[in-house]
Specification:
Strand order of the largest sheet: 4-5-6-7-28
Number of helices: 5
Largest sheet: 5 strands, antiparallel
Helix content: under 10%
Radius of gyration: 22 Å
Strand content: 35-45%
Length: 426
């Protein structure tokens, strides 16, 4: 019957189906396979899935073993939005779970996660794009600038989608540890469409704060940055990089955050930039504060959302803003690995009963998509191995050192269930 349907009508019907159904539908006929794998259909399907909420949350956290080699036990879980942190519906089998250190989630866009391999905060030239919906991993080759180029450096990453070229890009900024004034920052971009890195000229006047998070909004990546001569934890401005125009910009931050806090992270909530600052240098006043830029690019629109004072003993040691919930509650990570909900209105705190590495907690709305579906013409195996004490993440099986590796994961699903408890809001 489908052979008698107009192609446009068939595409409209199929574009409303979930990804798992579409993956099975590829086997119906050559016509269906050709349609579902067509880039225009993938874009059409993404537009529909992005417009409706999947009702699922993507949650990642890790715990570390206390014996050598201190392996990270990482879990990637899907939760119903209304029940988090209880009753996960699926545990995702991420290939990076096999490594002994935590893989950093640089960012996510259109259902695609950018992962980098991080050892004690030092980027060791490994990154990949992962779409759990279609169970595909695309390895990103080693960048141009490496540790052997000219000594120690501070690397910063940003990931996003360039709508002007329909391309996914990874930005890498490298600043010299000791000679920022003499050695200009090195900026390079990886393009999924071109399958390689290229250098970008820049006039960057700031050092991206070491271990700074990145946030993608309005076609640009954003980082917390400091002026020359200042070190870890200092916030002077937000630096942005437009993926389309490939130019840097600067945004002022609230005066009360400049050089006042040890840690300042940038994030996005409800289409606005956020700044979350923790551990004040002076040890007095607020130990954690969150600000929102209500109007993008307008410094005067910074608005304080809430403060957590240092005299509240049960709220001390807040290290990281994990997520805002539509209910108004905020998910926070304490320094020693406790994950809690905080209600800014009542100043009450609720324990999720989840423990892990404070830096590992990640929560976001799960977006189903077919992006990376066509990256299936190469097949390699993912294997975690050790080489002189350093873990190798992706071992090439049948491709050259400069080629892109595509890993098609097995279709089996984990049956293990996560433990969780309902949060009492009474």
């Amino acid at each position: 019957m489908s052979d008698h349907l107009p192609q446009e009508l068939l595409a409209e019907i199929l574009s409303r189906l979930p990804v798992k159904s579409l993956l099975k539908c590829r086997c119906v006929s050559k016509t269906w396979y050709s349609l579902i794998t067509d880039p225009s259909f993938i874009a059409q399907h993404l537009k529909k899935t992005a417009a409706r909420n999947s009702g699922l949350l993507f949650f990642r956290y890790s715990t570390r073993e206390f014996v050598w080699p201190f392996k990270e036990n990482v879990r990637y879980l899907l939760y119903p939005d209304e029940s988090f942190p209880a009753n996960p519906v699926e545990e995702l089998d991420c290939p990076f779970k096999g490594i002994k250190r935590l893989a950093n989630i640089v960012g996510s866009c259109n259902g695609v996660f950018c992962l980098s391999y991080d050892v004690y905060g030092k980027y060791i030239e490994r990154a990949a794009l992962w779409n759990p919906s279609v169970r595909k991993i695309v390895n990103i080759p080693c960048p141009i600038f490496t540790l052997t180029s000219y000594g120690p450096y501070i690397p910063s990453l940003g990931f996003g989608f360039d709508s002007t070229t329909d391309d996914y890009k990874l930005v890498r900024i490298v600043c010299s540890h000791f000679n920022f004034g003499e050695i200009r920052p090195f900026v390079e971009i990886y393009s999924l469409r071109s399958r390689g890195w290229r250098k970008v000229d820049n006039n960057l006047k700031y050092v991206i704060t070491e271990r700074s998070t990145s946030a993608f909004l309005n076609g640009a990546c954003h980082w917390v940055a400091a002026k020359r001569g200042y070190g870890h934890g200092v916030c002077d401005a937000i630096v942005s990089f437009s993926l389309g125009e490939e130019v840097f910009g600067e945004m002022e931050v609230p005066d009360c955050l400049v050089k006042k806090y040890q840690f300042v992270d940038v994030a996005v909530f409800d289409g606005s930039l956020l700044l979350a600052a923790s551990f004040k240098f002076s040890g007095e006043g607020c130990c954690f504060t969150v600000w929102m830029m209500k109007e993008y690019g307008v410094p005067g629109s910074w608005t304080k959302l809430f403060d957590i004072p240092d005299f509240e003993s049960h709220l001390k040691w807040i290290r990281k803003l994990v997520a805002f919930r539509q209910s108004g509650k905020v998910l926070l990570a304490k320094l020693f690995g406790q994950l809690v909900f905080y209600d800014p209105k009542t100043e009450e705190i609720f324990d999720t009963k989840i423990r892990g590495n404070a830096h590992s907690f990640y929560l976001d709305t799960f977006v189903e998509s077919l992006v990376l579906l066509n990256e299936a013409n190469e097949f390699t195996e993912l294997e975690a191995s050790e080489d002189n004490g350093t873990n190798e993440i992706l071992e090439e099986v049948a491709s050259s050192s400069n080629s892109q590796i595509v890993i098609d994961e097995a279709n089996g699903e984990s049956k293990e269930e996560a433990q969780g408890e309902s949060i009492s809001t009474q």
